[in-house]
Write a structure and sequence with these properties.
Chain lengths: 113, 115
């Protein structure tokens, strides 16, 4: 069975500081990995995804993530956080059939002025 | 365009009411999904439709009844709900092209309150 762990429930960073959100997955085959962001009361917006190829993937809003198979990780990074980045971030793994997403518990990001 | 729309945005209903949630996409996607999300929790999959046929039902109570009248539209009919069913209901869609990994695109959700 596939699973995703986001070890940090809450993270607070200062505006302009760098950010790294951790994600660890468990999946028997090649993982298909996603990061979504959710603002309060809103739906989920896709930030980026990894299917194959270059292990460093670029996404929207200046985010990037690096797939490390040896560590079963897919951490999300941003070099300089903006106040508008405050939201809930979900890491997810997709199954081979392409019809099931398993989400991590989420990380709530707060940004200090 | 990667837009999935959902109506209504908010819904308050009593336990004896019948209501429906609507989801629409015009991206040519052939897979559509319903998720339930409780506060401070990740989304939980409820149903998956593939080519307008129900392919996955994650043991959802029968008071939730999905319907996919055509490839662009997905409904969730609600009847005799309980207060614990109050949640954000999210719809998503994906291309469902053979041989490709799917990316799900989510709508803004319907926030449901059951009194």
């Amino acid at each position: 069975a596939q699973s995703v762990t986001q070890p940090d429930i809450h993270i607070t960073v200062s505006e302009g500081a760098s950010l790294e959100l951790r994600c660890n997955y468990s999946y028997g085959a090649t993982p298909y990995l996603f990061w979504y962001v959710q603002s309060p009361g809103q739906g989920l917006q896709l930030l980026l995804k990894y299917f194959s190829g270059d292990t460093l993937v670029q996404g929207i809003k200046g985010f990037e993530a690096e797939f490390k198979r040896s560590q079963s990780s897919f951490n999300l990074r941003k070099p300089s956080v903006h106040w508008s980045d405050a939201a809930e971030y979900f890491c997810a793994v997709g199954n081979n059939a392409g019809n099931m997403l398993t989400f991590g518990g989420g990380t709530r990001l707060m940004v200090k002025p | 365009d990667t837009e999935v729309t959902q109506t209504p945005k908010h819904l308050v209903m009593g336990m004896t009411n019948k209501k429906s949630l609507k989801c629409e996409q015009h991206m040519g996607h052939r897979a559509m999904y319903w998720y339930k999300q409780k506060a401070k929790k990740p989304p939980e999959l409820m149903f998956v439709y593939s080519y307008e046929k129900l392919s996955i039902n994650e043991s959802v109570p029968s008071r939730f009844s999905p319907e996919c009248p055509n490839s662009s539209l997905l409904n969730l009919h609600l009847h005799a709900l309980q207060p614990e069913d109050s949640a954000l209901y999210l719809c998503a869609s994906s291309l469902k092209h053979p041989g490709t990994q799917e990316t799900q695109y989510f709508g803004p959700g319907t926030r449901l309150l059951v009194l």
